[in-house]
UniProtKB/TrEMBL annotation:
Keywords: Hydrolase, Signal. The keyword Ribonucleoprotein does not apply. It comes from freshwater metagenome. Pfam families: Abhydrolase_4. This is Unannotated protein. Transmembrane segments: none annotated. One of its GO terms (molecular function) is hydrolase activity. Residues 338-437 form the Peptidase S33 tripeptidyl aminopeptidase-like C-terminal domain. Belongs to the peptidase S33 family. InterPro entries: AB_hydrolase_fold, Pept_S33_TAP-like_C, Serine_prot/Carboxylest_S33. The keyword Iron does not apply.
Amino acid sequence: MDYTNLDLGDISIAVSRTVHTGPNFQGSIVVNPGGPGSPGLEFASYVAKEIAPTVAKDFDFIGFDPRGVGKSAAVTCMTSKQTAQWLSMDSTPDTPAETAALMKSAGKISQGCLKYSPRMASKVGTPFATQDLDLLRSALHEDKLNWLGFSYGTTLGASYIQAFPNRVGRFVLDGAVDPALNGMQLSFGQSQGFQKAFQNYAQKCLQQGPCPLGSTRTAITARVNSLLARLDTRPLRTKDGTPLTQSLGTSAIFTAMYSTDMWELLTSALTSAYQGDGTGLLELSWMGSDQTGPATFGSNMQSAYYAIDCWDLPATPAAASLASAAQKWAKNAPIPEMAKSMSWSNAPCSRWFAHDTNPPTAATSSTAAPILIIGTRFDPATPYAWARALNAQLATSTLLTYGGNGHTAFGGGSTCIDSSVNSYLLTGLMPQPGKSCPA
């Protein structure tokens, strides 16, 4: 449970293995889908079958639920009912009463961790998970860890590179996070990324023919703003009876920006919403939060996200500063409510019970291993600037660029990206420095 106090006892980490399919076994590759808080057990078989089948011939793919997550020693900060309530409540308060309600609910998440998971609540940060990774490497009988991490998986991977520089094997960090940034800096970068992603989505809708949402990007954006303004006071009906609130509608847009595969779903959902039916937007929102019903979830992802994220980073500001940032970020944003919600999303971490005492700093490592970093030009959740920053921080890293949209690139449909990553994983051969793959 705690590598600095072994008297606290042990915990269990759930691990899965997808066995190599060919005769030339090279070892294991541990994978992580991000989050923080996303379960990873089933992710290994998905990567092996859908993303990297050529690599799966020579490597076992290892999935795991990090501590605090899923079937490992899990952390609970909210019941399912409380989680649903939190996700649907007003995330961009306009009045003192709404602000007080949001901050009160945010504080309850921290209190809930201590109430429901008192032993694990302060033991789920990335430094602990990094130590777990090295035990997993040992359990696999590997001298070095091979790693394929997406999004938060790059944070965990970069942490391992720094803690165990001599045990780094082939490392792919896709959708890189800049470890030097604090919570508000990360949120501001994402706020800008999602705004740009929505504009690219609107432009794509126009390019594909008559767009049902409007005739120009300005018209499409204005209509979305009008919808979100309405949802603030008049939630839309849905087929299952769950009202589509403004926060759920905003969440649906955020979710759809993660993959261009969901853009047509968003267009359909917005079209239905303009006709008074919020079902499509509700389903997109649920997809993003792993919600399976009005008060049911497929995992503890929401609890684990806050437990890990708020522990890892310094406390975010109190309500007055969150409100100030929200107004500042929204000032020139095409969709102001999305920008505001990015600032207010930090409310739980401003009320957290404790934080890692080490502040965010740039990554440094003495590793000699070549590290492959992938950055997507218009990634909404991990902006391209973060990949460039991590590349500058890690001396042995090479940056591979994808010129398209969506969150992370490997397995997203680019033959150029996939062939470069597969070649590196199979042979250790890096792509040429500065290589860029077109959308």
